[in-house]
Amino acid sequence: MFEAAGYSPLATIAMNIFAPDEANMHLLEQVAEEQQKEEWLRPLASGAIRSCFMMTEPAPGSGSDPSMLC
Questions:
Q1: What DSSP assignment string belongs to 6-62?
Q2: d(CA 59, CA 45)
Q3: Residues whose CB falls within 8 Å of the CB of residue 11, separated by 6 or more in sequence, listed in order
Q4: Which of 8, 17, 41, 44 holds its CA 20 to 30 A away from the CA of 33?
Q5: CA-to-CA distance for 29 and 51, rounded, in angstroms?
Q6: Which pLDDT tens digit goes with each residue over 34-53?
């Protein structure tokens, strides 16, 4: 289903499977406590909020190469 959705410009909106939201929903379902699920998973699954993924870059910075993070 995800592969077929990848060919449609509207499928991610219709199915609420934006990246990284879809993966973050799975992660929250597996490891979040009930309070966290109520606060973050429920609104994320309903499409009321969006999620993101960020990395920090300690000096001297790794750019876009996460293997440089030590």
A1: TT-TTHHHHHT--TTHHHHHHHHHHH--HHHIIIIIHHHHHTSS---------TT--
A2: 36
A3: 4, 5, 17
A4: 17
A5: 14
A6: 999 999 999 999 989 999 87
**Closest alpha carbon to 50 in 14, 15, 24:** 24
The values of phi and psi at residue 32, to 5°, are -75, 150
Give me 1's structure tokens.
């289903």
Tokens of 40: 């973050």
Entry pTM: 0.66
Contact 12, 5 (CB under 8 A): yes
Q: Residue 42: name the closest of 55, 24, 20, 54 by CA.
A: 24
CB of 47 closer than 8 Å to CB of 16 = yes
